[in-house]
Amino acid sequence: TVRVLLGQLTPARARYSAVAKEFAPRAGMRERWYGTAYAERPIAAATAEGWLRPAALPEYELPRPNPFVPRDFSLKAPRAPAAQLQRAIEEPPPVAPKHH
């Protein structure tokens, strides 16, 4: 379910990357295909702990619900009998009056 998936999105399960030219002098490893310099560092425990309990940001808020997005996706029974629907498909109304 969606809730199970969202439960897996935690800081401990994430992969973080920081990319900048300023980091190049501290990059002690090289990637084997293109020779790109990189480094791996553990995330400080205090930083990871802070990610688990982030402070509220009042300048960020969720948008109001969109009234045009349905909430109920269950199937509905047709309003007209099947024979009436079939006739409507076979005999569509004319688009414009015929003027000859």
What is the topology?
Blueprint: H1 2-8, E1 29-30, E2 37-38, H2 45-52, H3 82-90
Antiparallel strand pairs: 1-2
Verbal overview:
The protein has a domain at 1-53. The chain has three helices and two strands, in the order αββαα. The chain has helices at 2-8, 45-52, 82-90; strands spanning 29-30, 37-38. The chain has a two-stranded antiparallel ribbon with strand order 1-2. Strand 1 and strand 2 form a beta hairpin.
How do you describe this structure in short?
Keywords: Metal-binding. With 100 residues, the chain is mainly alpha-helical.
State the end-to-end distance.
Answer: 61 Å
What is the string of helix and strand elements?
A: HEEHH
> How many separate helices?
3
Q: Care to count the β-strands?
A: 2
- Mean pLDDT equals 84
How is the main sheet built?
2 strands, antiparallel
Strand content: under 5%
Query: Structural class, please?
Result: mainly alpha
Helix content: 10-25%
* Spatial strand order of the main sheet: 1-2
Low-confidence stretches: none
Shape: elongated
Rg from alpha-carbon coordinates:
29 Å
Region (Disordered): 79-100
InterPro entries: Metalloenz_LuxS/M16, Peptidase_M16, Peptidase_M16_M
GO molecular function, one term: metal ion binding
Organism: Zooxanthella nutricula
